Amino acid sequence: MARAVTQQRKIINTTAAWGIGLLIFFPILWTILTSFKTEATAIADPPVFLAFDWTLENYSAVMERSNYARFLWNSIIIAGGSTILGIIVAVPAAWSMAFVPSKRTKDILLWMLSTKMLPAVGVLYPIYLICIKLGVLDSRGALVIILMLMNLPIIVWMLYTYFKEIPGEILEAARMDGATLKEEILYILTPMAIPGIASTLLLNFILAWNEAFWTLNLTAAKAAPLTAFIASYSSPEGLFFAKLSAASTMAIAPILILGWFSQKQLVSGLTFGAVK
Amino acid sequence: MGQIKLNQVTKSFGDVQVIPPLDLTIEDGEFTVFVGPSGCGKSTLLRLIAGLEDITSGHIEIDGADATYVPPAKRGLAMVFQSYALYPHMSVRKNIAFPMKMAGIDEAEQNRRIEGAAKALNLTDYLDRKPGQLSGGQRQRVAIGRSIVREPAAFLFDEPLSNLDAALRVGMRLEISELHERLKTTMIYVTHDQVEAMTMADKIVVLRAGFIEQVGSPLELYHKPRNEFVAGFIGSPKMNLIKGAEAEKHDAATIGIRPEHTAVSKTEGMWKGVVGVAEHLGSDTFIHVHDTGLADMVTVRITGDIQAKHGDTIYLTPQLDQLHKFDAQGLRVD
Amino acid sequence: MATKHSRSAARLMMAPAVILLLGWMLVPLIMTLMFSFKKYLPLRGGDLGWVGFENYVRFVSSSAFWPSVGATLTIVGGVLLITIFFGVLLAILLNQPMWGQGVVRILVIAPFFVMPTVSALVWKNMFMDPVNGLFAHLWRFFGAEPISWLSQASLPSIVMIVSWQWLPFATLILLTAIQSLDGEQLEAAEMDGAPPLKRFGYITLPHLSRAITIVLLIQTIFLLAIFAEIFVTTGGAFGTRTLTYLIFQRVLESQNVGLGSAGGVYAIILANIVAIFLMRIVGKNLDA
C-alpha cells in the first residue's frame, strides 16, 4: 500500500491511535506512577498525576515485609527451569519432525497441541494428589516439571516451525562431511536456529512467568513465585495502593520488557503457525 | 581410487518405484553425467550413491567393497549441493575446515589444505567472510572447496550450476572441468541441461523415469542414439523426427535428421516448405520450416547467415548418411 | 531425506517428548475419570467406593451448576465479543500510516504480558474500589454515586478486566492478518467503485475471517479456564463462579473429589469440542 496519504489523514490517525494506545496502557502507567506515591497521595481525590513527591519508600517497604527476593527467585527458577528443560526435550523432537517427517508427523503435532487444550482444572486433583504422594507439593521442582509439560507443545511447535525454514540440504551436507547426528544438531542446526530458539525461550519464559493456576494451587510458602506473592495482596493489604503498585510493578516490569522484544514471535507462537 | 558399481539397485517411495532395477559401473577417474528431464530419478540416484537415501534392494559397491549399508559419512564421497548448502553461521574458512574437523585431521594439516584449496579456487581473500557476503559463484567455489579438502574417492554434484546466471554458469562449467583434469578423481554430475552433459562428461547416463536409456560418451550419444528419446534429448536444436510415408521410404517407423545435417536451397531440394521463423545468430541461422508435409515443423541449422524470411518458399535436402532410423518401438535400426 | 538409520534416530529423539506428554495427558486423565465414579472425600473418610454416575448427575443437578454455566457463558461470550469487535477496529487503525506506529503497538500489546493476578488486583483495588478507586473518583466528579463494581456489577467487571488482558492478543493477530492483505486488491476494488465501507465488508472482513476464527477458538480455550482473575477479585462470589471455579471449589475447598472430578470430565469434554474445530484449522495449515 505504498500510497501517499494526506498530512491531515495522518494526523487524525496518529491522534486516534495514540489516544487509544495510551488508554489501553493507562492501568499499567497508573500502577507504575502510584508505586512512587505515598499512600496518602495514592488515594487522593482528585487523583494526582505527576505533580507529587516521588518516593521509593513503597519499594523498600515491600522488599522488607514480604521477602520479595525469595518470590522473585522462585519465579526465575520456575519459569527459567521449565523453559530450558522444555527446550532440551523439544529440540530433538522438533528435529525429527522437521527433517525426517513421516506420515504420522502431522498427527503427532496435532496430538501434542491437543494436550495443551486439556483444561487444567480437569486434572487438578490428580496432580495435587501425585504431588502429595511424592512429597513435592510446594516445591519448585514440581512446578518446573508441570509448567514444562504444560508449555512443551508450544515449544515443540515453535521450534518445528523454525526448523522447517532451515534447508535440509545443509544438514545433509553436514552428514556427507562426516558429522554424526549429535554433531549435526550441535554444530549446524542449533547455531543456525539460534534466533528461533531464542524467541521460543522468550515467549515460553513469559508464559511460565505469568502462569497462575498451578502456581497458585500447588504452592504455599516455600516455592511460591510472584503470582502467589501478588495474590497475597488480595486483601486487606491491597487497600494500600502504593505498596500494591510497587509490588505489581516489580512483578511485571521484567516481563513487560521481555514481552516487547518477543511481540513478533508472539503471533505465530500462540496461533501454532496458523497466522504468520 | 573411486570406482562405483550399482548392482540391481532399486528405490521405491511407498508404493511408487522411482528406480527400477538398475546396473551401472562408474570407472575410477571418470567424469560421469546423469542427465534427463526433471523427475527422471537422476537426483535420487545420486542420493542413493551418497547414502542420503536407503536403496530398496540391490547393492552399491565403492572400490569393490559393499557400501550398501555404510552411512554417508563413511563412504568417502563428497557432495556439492544445488543450493551449495554452506553453513551460514561459519566463515568460509570454517566451512571448508568442517569435514576435516569431523574427520579429526590435525590443525596444521587442516590449514595447509584450506590454503591450497583457497588458492586453487581463488578464495584466499574471502576466507574470513560469511557465506551471506559472497556472490553465487563464490559460494559455489566454497562448496567445491569444502568437498576437495576431504580428498574424497569421488565427487557428487547435484545440479550445481542451476542457481547461477547464464554467464557464470559457462565459467563454472570450465572450472569444474579443469578441476577434474587436475585431480583425476571420479566425478558424478547430475544435470537436466544436455549442454552441460555434452561439454563436461566422459560418460553420459541418460535417464528417463528411472530407466537408463543409454550410457555412452557424448559423441556416441550424438551419433548413435539408441532410441528416439535419446535422439530428441541430446543435441540442440532438437533432432527432427519424421514419421509416416517419408519414413517408410527408408524402411523405418521414424526417421530423424539433426538440424545441422540438412542443406537448404531456394530453388531445389528433396523437401519443400515455407519459412515460419528464421533466427539469425550471426554464426548460425536456425530456420523453422512449416508445410513440408513431414512434421509440424522442421528445424534446420545453417552455418553463417542466409537470407530467409517469414513466408519464403524453401527446399531442404537431408544428408542421407546422417539419417537416423527407428523402428515402431522407437529403437534405433542400423 | 531419510534413511532407515535417520528414521530410527528420529523415533528415538521424539520419544522423550512423546512419552512425557503421553504421561502428562493419560495419568491424570485416567485418575480423574476414576475419581469421578467414586465417592471420594479425602477429609471425611477418603475413598468410599464406586457410585456409578451419581457424581455426574449430582454435579449438573446442584443449584450451583446452571448459574456457573451462565457465568461461564457470559464471561466467555462477553470477552469474545468485545475483544474481536474492538480488535478488528484497532487492527485497522494500527495498520493506517501514522507517526510512532511501533510505540503505539507496544502500548497496545502491554496488557497481555501483565501477570493475571496483577491485572486482577490492580483493577479490583485501584480502579474498581468503591471508595478510593479511580472510577469512584470519576463518578463523584460527575456527581454520581460510586458503584461497588465487583459486587453490584460483578460479571461486567470481570468481563472488562479479562477483555483488557485479551484485547492485545486479538489485536495483534488481526493486525498481522490485515498486514498480509494485498493492498492491490483494495485498490482494485476502489477502481471498481467500491466505497470504503463496502471495501471493508467485501474484501477486508472475508480476508480476516480465518484469523477471527482462530482468535475465537484460542481465546475460548483460554477463557474457559480463567482462574486467577476470579480467585483474586471475588473468590467466586456475586455470581462470578464459573465452571472452572466451581470445580476448583468442589475439589480443593470442599474436598469433594468425586464430584469435582465429574465436573472436570464435563470441562474436558467442553474444551475438546472447541479444540476439534481449532485443530482442523491448524491441521489444514500444516498441509499447505
UniProtKB/TrEMBL annotation, chain A:
Q: Principal localization?
A: membrane
Which stretches are annotated as coiled coil?
none
Which segments cross the bilayer? Answer: 12-33, 71-96, 108-130, 142-163, 184-207, 240-261
Q: Does the keyword DNA-binding apply?
A: no
Keyword flag Transmembrane helix? yes
Domain ABC transmembrane type-1: residue ranges:
72-262
In terms of Pfam families, this protein maps to: BPD_transp_1
The record's subcellular locations are: Cell membrane
Q: Do you know which SUPFAM superfamilies this protein is assigned to?
A: MetI-like
Example GO CC term: the record gives: plasma membrane
* Family the entry assigns: Belongs to the binding-protein-dependent transport system permease family.
Descriptive protein name: Inner membrane ABC transporter permease protein YcjP
TrEMBL record, chain B:
Q: Which organism is it from?
A: Ruegeria meonggei
Tell me the SUPFAM superfamilies matching this sequence.
MOP-like, P-loop containing nucleoside triphosphate hydrolases
Pfam families reported in the protein's UniProt record? ABC_tran, TOBE
User: Nucleotide-binding among the record's keywords?
Assistant: yes
The enzyme's E.C. designation? 3.6.3.19
Single GO MF annotation: ABC-type maltose transporter activity
Origin: domain of life? Bacteria
Q: Hey, which family's this protein in?
A: Belongs to the ABC transporter superfamily.
- State the gene name recorded for this protein: malK_6
- SMART domains assigned to the protein according to its UniProt record, in alphabetical order: AAA (SM00382)
CDD domains per the record?
ABC_MalK_N
Identify this protein by name: Maltose/maltodextrin import ATP-binding protein MalK
Tell me a GO cellular component: ATP-binding cassette (ABC) transporter complex, substrate-binding subunit-containing
Arranged from A to Z, the UniProt key words for this protein are: ATP-binding, Hydrolase, Nucleotide-binding, Transport
Tell me which residues make up the ABC transporter domain. Answer: 4-234
Which InterPro entries is this protein grouped with?
AAA+_ATPase, ABC_transporter-like_ATP-bd, ABC_transporter-like_CS, ABC_transpr_MalK-like, ABC_transpr_MalK/UgpC-like, Mo/tungstate-bd_C_term_dom, NA-bd_OB-fold, P-loop_NTPase
Does the record bear Translocase in its keywords?
no
Automatic annotation (TrEMBL), chain C:
Q: Where in the cell is it found?
A: Cell membrane
List, alphabetically, the GO terms of the cellular component aspect.
plasma membrane
Q: Which CDD domains match?
A: TM_PBP2
SUPFAM superfamilies reported in the protein's UniProt record = MetI-like
- Could you list the residue ranges that cross the membrane? 12-37, 65-94, 106-123, 158-178, 214-238, 258-282
Per the database record, which ranges form the ABC transmembrane type-1 domain? 69-278
Its membrane topology, per UniProt?
Answer: Multi-pass membrane protein
- Mind telling me which InterPro entries this protein's record contains? ABC_transporter_permease (IPR051393), MetI-like (IPR000515), MetI-like_sf (IPR035906)
| A Pfam family hit | BPD_transp_1
Among PROSITE patterns, the record links this protein to: ABC_TM1
Which protein family is it in?
A: Belongs to the binding-protein-dependent transport system permease family.
Q: What is this protein called?
A: Trehalose transport system permease protein SugA
Q: Which organism is it from?
A: Ruegeria meonggei
Taxonomic placement: Bacteria, Pseudomonadati, Pseudomonadota, Alphaproteobacteria, Rhodobacterales
